[in-house]
Write a structure and sequence with these properties.
alpha/beta; TIM Barrel; 9 helices; 19% strand; globular; binds ligand RRO
Length: 313
């Protein structure tokens, strides 16, 4: 039988498998990160970090049901020094994406400077899209001038491969504006999409919300967001420079879902809610399911179908 290649190259960053974890899920502590290093995942993404450790929001702050999840974690993390020390102490066997999410632009500059000093970090994933920070005064999501200035300043000093984790956009013009800004900079990748902000889930018996922070409002993930993830990936694929890779994230729970993300233009994918449900064994299962689909379709690599979604005639 023909050998099937499901490795990925994110603008030259080689992943032994195109599937990895999404930032936030089971990637905060020493134990969780060690588990990921020892798993089949093609890379390790760390929990978005701030300069100082944070407890995050009050519990319960995560809830899942059959087709979705809601969270208002509030950026709980052990602080950037913990992640840099973890990487120094452990044998690194795959690409490491350090996710950062400073509470201000100044904090983000500082975090990126620190990340630049570590030889263990393969790339920085700059999270511009956290939906749950109570103390955050400014959202950069749709402030295109703000984002443009911010990225321009970053590339005055940043030497590390850098990608940006984007929120879901719901209008073509927002995606186009964002892509045209990103195209002006030596960005390696974008990750599409973060959770859909400001959803609520209701417990009908209790007639109440299911998470405590922000009166029950939180970011929605899981299968129900897949159509929005696919749409954002596909639109960005049409507008972005071809050397900017897209990492698809949102609603993946099967090999078929991964196939769809790649068909829309993703180079690699991240698993959030389903990783939370299933633990590290999810990567091997998804790998097998993806290979099975490629075998059936007689494809030998992801490039055979990446971005080739067809329109109806
Ligand atoms: O920690 C969170 O509340 C959180 C973050 Br930083 C994020 O980027 N996305 C999300 O759904 N939750």
């Amino acid at each position: 039988m023909k050998k099937i290649d499901i490795t990925a190259s994110i603008n030259g960053i080689k992943l032994p498998l195109c599937i990895m974890n999404a930032s936030g899920v089971l990637c905060t502590t020493d134990q969780e990160l060690s588990n990921l290093l020892n798993s089949y995942s093609g890379g390790v993404v760390t929990k978005s970090c701030t300069y100082k450790p944070r407890e995050g929001n009050i519990s319960p702050r995560y809830f899942e049901w059959n087709i979705g999840s809601i969270n208002s974690m509030g950026l709980p993390n052990l602080g950037i020094n913990f992640y840099l020390n973890f990487l120094e102490k452990n044998k690194i066997n795959k690409p490491i994406f350090l996710s950062i999410s400073g509470l201000s632009t100044e904090e983000n500059y500082l975090l990126i400077q620190k990340a630049n000093q570590s030889s263990k970090i393969t790339a920085i994933e700059l999270n511009l899209s956290c939906p749950n920070i109570i103390e955050k005064k400014e959202m950069l999501d749709c402030n295109f001038d703000g984002i443009s200035n911010f990225i321009e300043n970053i590339f005055r000093f940043n030497k590390k491969p850098l990608g940006i984790k984007l929120p879901p956009y719901f209008h073509d013009i927002h995606i186009k504006n964002m892509a045209l800004i990103l195209n002006r900079f030596p960005i390696f990748f974008v990750t599409c999409i973060n959770s859909l902000p400001n959803g609520i889930f209701i417990d009908v018996n209790k007639e109440s919300v299911v998470i405590r922070p922000k009166k029950g409002f939180g970011g929605i993930g899981g299968s129900i967001i897949k159509p929005f993830a696919l749409a954002n990936i596909h639109k960005f694929y049409t507008y972005l420079r071809k050397d900017i890779s897209i990492i698809g994230c949102g609603g993946i729970s099967s090999g078929k879902d991964i196939f769809e993300h790649i068909l829309c233009g993703a180079t690699a994918v991240q698993i959030g809610t389903q990783f939370m449900k299933e633990g590290v064994s999810v990567f091997e299962r998804l790998k097998k399911e993806l290979i099975f689909i490629l075998e059936k379709k007689n494809y030998s690599s992801l490039n055979n179908f990446k971005g080739k979604l067809k329109n109806l005639q």
